[in-house]
Amino acid sequence: MKLLPRRQFIRNAALTGVSLGLGTSAIWSTNLWAANKLKPSANAALIAVDVQNCFVSSGTLPVPKGEEVVPIINALGRVFDNVVITQDWHTAGHASFASSHVGKKPFETTQLSYGQQVLWPDHCVQGTQDAELHSDLKLPKAQVVIRKGYNPQVDSYSAFKEADRKSTTGLAAYLQARGIDTVYVAGLATDFCVAWTALDARALGFETLVIEDACRAIDLNGSLAAAWKEMTAKGVKRIQSSDLI
Ligand SMILES: [Zn+2]
């Protein structure tokens, strides 16, 4: 048997799912092939989720350390041919705002027509500075911006489908028309808009990878662990930016 150099063996093992005494998901979740970077194909797209003023420290719905993803996502953008940006884009008085429901406070829940909804502080209102993309976000290759959550009565964590699980944003059809078969997801927040986007991408048949350190989480009542558990169970792969850059 020809012995492969260790680095080459590890890379081959990782790509074929051969066990190194770890499960396949564990292989994906580590940096075993960090010296051999993943190279996104021409049919892959980076989806930069909701890197907006509202979700960083000075915003109306700050994700802890949310601004830390900006330089990482800028660097990631340089290794992709295709980049998609999403923006949370609510009407004033949106149904997902606690202020729209008498007696409710942010982070409580309520029942809307499509099911349970977490209630948030007013955030990302259309046309406001708060809803703008972070001013340091530099993704010159971005080809489309998907705005979501603009239906006054329906929230949309996912870049693909609104919270009623019926209304589409059109992103899947756009990516399919462009021949994109793989998406790498990064941004804010891991346990809400990133996770819902990744889960929908996977359900729609896209190979889906979440770049963990290019995301930050809200982690509401264990939501971060729950999100990773569900993403892993559904076949979403978990990688680090160092696997790519
Ligand atoms: Zn929102």
Your description of this structure?
This protein has 245 residues and is an alpha/beta fold. It folds into 2 domains: 1-36, no CATH class; 39-243, Isochorismatase-like (Rossmann fold, 3-Layer(aba) Sandwich), CATH 3.40.50. It contains 6 helices and 8 strands, in the order ααβαββββαβαβαβ. It has helices spanning 6-16, 24-29, 69-77, 171-177, 190-203, 223-233, and strands spanning 44-49, 82-88, 109-112, 115-118, 142-148, 182-188, 207-216, 237-239. The strands form 2 sheets. Strands 5-2-1-6-7-8 form a 6-stranded parallel β-sheet. β7 (207-216), α6 (223-233) and β8 (237-239) form a beta-alpha-beta unit. Residues 1-34 have low confidence and may be disordered.
Entry summary:
The chain is an alpha/beta fold. It contains 6 helices and 8 strands; from the N terminus they run H-H-E-H-E-E-E-E-H-E-H-E-H-E.
* Widest sheet, order of strands: 5-2-1-6-7-8
Cα distance spanning the termini: 33 Å
Alpha-beta content class: alpha/beta
Main sheet properties: 6 strands, parallel
Apparent shape:
globular
CATH fold node name of the largest domain: Rossmann fold
Helix content: 10-25%
From the coordinates shown, what is the CATH architecture of the largest domain? 3-Layer(aba) Sandwich
Give me the number of helical elements. 6
Radius of gyration: 18 Å
Which molecules other than protein and nucleic acid are bound?
Answer: zinc ion
